[in-house]
Records
---
Amino acid sequence: MNSDYKVITISRQYGAGGRTVAKSLSEKLGIPFYDNDFVKLTAKESGFSENDILREGEDISYVSRFVNSILNNSSSYTSSHDAIFDAQVRTILELAKEPCIIVGRCSNIILSAAKIRSFDIFLYADMEHRYKRAEELHENGSMDLKKYIEKRDKQRDIYYKTYTGHTPGMFQDYDICLNTGAIGMDNCVDILVNILK
């Protein structure tokens, strides 16, 4: 692996295959990736349950953001979103001590702010490919799939903007942006391996 990039971050649209690309990269580069395991590590760091972190870890609504902005003016109040985010920051900085791949969690911006060099990837796809991928994931419950994708996108956008002040998907925040729908996930992995090796 290119020693200039000890840590790889993957930001992604919902349904663009972030976890799949991370897993393949992990196997080809011989370094661990953190997505679902990240939840366990953050739970240990924060004291929150894994369910709390899964529910609030990368999702925040306009209502939650508004309520938090009002209540955070009180010195005695810290929202669960803020506490979980703080724990995630500590977890990311600890993981970054060794070569790894981190999926989501504003990790590209967190590492940049800490002056830790990382190779930052953004994955996106057209709605047709994302819809197909979301069908395979079965995470929407009884909600219409299109509405579920829109909801997840909106929550991730609010979360990212709230904690970084940046808009997700802006090319300036990444080393490479790849369309997994047009290029294909396997081809995206091959491109990334060639760059990183």
---
Amino acid sequence: MTSPSPPPSIALSHLLQHTADMVQGVREGRSLTDLLARVPANARAGTQALSFEVLRRLGGAQAVRSLVASKAPPPAVDALLVSAIALLWPPAPGERAAYPDHTLVDQAVHAAHQRTPAAAAFINAVLRRFVRERDALVTQAERQPVGAYNHPLWWIERLQHDWPAHWQTLLREANRHPPMTLRVNARRGTAVAYVQRLAALGHAAQATASHTVVLAQPCPVTLLPGFAEGEVSVQDAAAQRAAPLLIGDALPAQAHVLDACAAPGGKAAHLLELAELDLLALDSDPQRLSRVQDALKRLHLAATLKAGDARQPATWWDGRLFDAILLDAPCSASGIVRRHPDIRWLRRPDDIAALARIQAQMLDALWPLLAPGGRLLYATCSVFKAEGQQQIDAFLQRLGPGAARLDPAAPGHLLPLPDNASVAAAIADGFFYALIHKP
């Protein structure tokens, strides 16, 4: 697998400048999604592809830079330098480099001449040395955990503690390219039928569940048949488990359901595709809530949308108890880092405890809103136990004996492991699910 090459009209040197800006921005604590939105449209796809590659190898690239230049250059120079080193990194087995070494070095130096002329000779010398001594430098860099696994040390240590038998595999899998997974609208068709439509257009894919399709190669949604008409959506296989778990086999038609953190709307839409529900889609961010509306409009679905903080029901709740509640709580997103490689570099160790407090507050605030006999599905896209099983264990202890029942149908922690046959051949992201019934 390779990174997409830029269109002929966009020079690689320009993309490298944008990529360096992305890396510098992430190092300063800004989201890659927000940074990419400011990149000119014709350069955005190429910049994203290169930025993803760099961020997946940033730990090793920074370790090499410290070996060949003990004093860090100015931030803008350093960002361009580590970006080029990351893109010159030996490709993983089964992959090949996106660009020849000489091309990448030449274009990185050209980018330096355009952006920081005084540093061009320095960047040229460092990159040429890296190419000459690559094997030795990579070996030395990978002796450090951050250089070997391309995650912050605290993240590595947390996974070692939470998953002593799997932490290395989880870190390696987080650096792989994720599959593009689709959810076929249950009101409009099946996965098998959609795979046949894709095949007719030359797109290889497989059906992994009744409405789940995994593409052999990602493609723009504009190339997906029926996307604009609402026949299919992009949603990871693990995220697709939420709606069937909440609905189960006993939720009545027109049940009053709350999606407590609804944006961007994928799970809310899936609920409505599977059942006729009286759904309230809540989110604390009115701007993000508009994305829920857009998703429902494309799929020809309807729900009540309201802006509000799930921790403060008094500001938005009308007093009607809910038959079911989906709490897809804010979390570290440690389970989807392969799709968002900036997350590992943006998070800080104390973020996990802060997020766990928010999750606990949401659980405590929403539980009284659930009708007797109702169910609450707690979900996070995290592989950290503090945001998963430990969070639910603490919640059940707060409720006390007999106040709730944990449903064994929910899988708990879903880990993206190559031998995890229970999750569609390990194609899914890392997630946690707990389904709690109120007597």
---
Amino acid sequence: MPETLLALVTAELTAPADPRAAAMAGALAAKYPRASRAVLFYGSCLREANLDGLMLDFYLIVSDYRAAYGKSWLATANRSIPPNVFPFEHNGLIAKYAVLSEADFARLTGPAADNVSVWARFAQPARLLWVADDLARQRAIAAVAGAAPTLLSLARPMAQAADALSLWKAGFTLTYNAELRAERKGRSLSIVDADPTRYRRFGEAALAQGLPPSPPDAPARWRQLQRRGKWLSVIRLAKASFTYAGGIDYLAWKINRHAGTRIEIKPWQRRWPLIGALTLLPRLFRGGAIR
């Protein structure tokens, strides 16, 4: 019997993960006892055997923002420009986590999403490390299972070939152009080249089940996603200067790590992180560190 996309996603999300990452996910969920529904682990650290000194990436899925934050302005910020991003430490490990409601997670992995950031990430491997109950598990898996079809359906009219790997590569190249990215040129293609078997299986399963309809004017749709994605990246950067302690140092670390630059943050930029972060942008664009 052919593999279904839902079965592949379920198996990948529930595969074993580093026990320290799993413990960190449980501790993260415990910070929001009234709201936590699921915690997902994603990003390059999934492939690392030693997590010491690395910045882990999590998504915390909550029932709703009011339950997570109470009447705080953070609820409005998360609802208006999702997600909010925060730092986290546990048992010697460091991480950042993004907060989304279950409703926003489902919406932002689908083809109607107004930006690429969530479905582009969850079309890639992830682990579901903590859930509140079986319904939370089902909802998280269903949302993640929507990410690959979204990417492939939007990429299909723009790809030079119709096979699964060509669609994946076209899709990741387009999504990287829809965000401010610190990675070097070619990083989008290396995602697929690092595990072509995985992407072929997932892509062929998505094609077999049928993709969502591609947009009638795909180039215009991608131009819209790219314009909005760049602006959202700047807006989220500004928001993170309020929600993320030491955010400007993290920004510099991330860019230096991926782009090979040697940006050093000055004391005044730490005192006024919003202004300091924004002053980096022209230099980074000129140098090609972000694009």
---
Amino acid sequence: METILICDDDKEIVEAIEIYLKNEGYNVCKAYNGEDALKALSENEIHLIIMDIMMPKLDGLHATMKIRENYGIPIIMLSAKSEDTDKILGLNVGADDYVTKPFNPLELMARVRSNLRRYTKLGSIQPENSQIITIGGLTINDDSKEVMVDGEKVNLTPIEYSILFLLAKNAGRVYSIGQIYESVWNETAIGADNTVAVHIRHIREKIEINPKEPRYLKVVWGVGYKLEKQ
């Protein structure tokens, strides 16, 4: 069973989340600041992290930046703030998902399951359904879930891979932000514009020579995004 790392300086919140996770059958590791989270990650096999933003010693944003230097596991951000700027900050530093306090524990568990499914799929090999897509110098191998650009491997998070693969296997088709969100996150796209835009920007930074003049991932103004046929 997967192991979830909970990191929050509020011990009552950690214990409450732990109860729900264990009821779902997950193993749990606990940390109360970013430094403890990094230590726990180095000592345990962690499959997903639930990370608070505001913490002492090392906050969740800086901890996430450090984690992303070496790990691609899903990170769900927690914050007492609901402003879009805080959400975008979390996504900008590498978070996959975001839940605002106070949160519904059932919603959090649903997001845990969804992100784990996506991560597990990214790491699995499914030859019967797999394919290799080549568009110009971009190659996506869905057997190994590897992405190469001009022969160089590109490391994508599970969310980034899911978005890129969706657009690549339907190259030339324009997807609205809502269609991308509902296809990748499997939930209704309400207020999804910033979330999708941040992940698109991250993908461009990784696959494009010049992200401001993308060769592959194009915006169709007022409509959505597409992966250009080449």
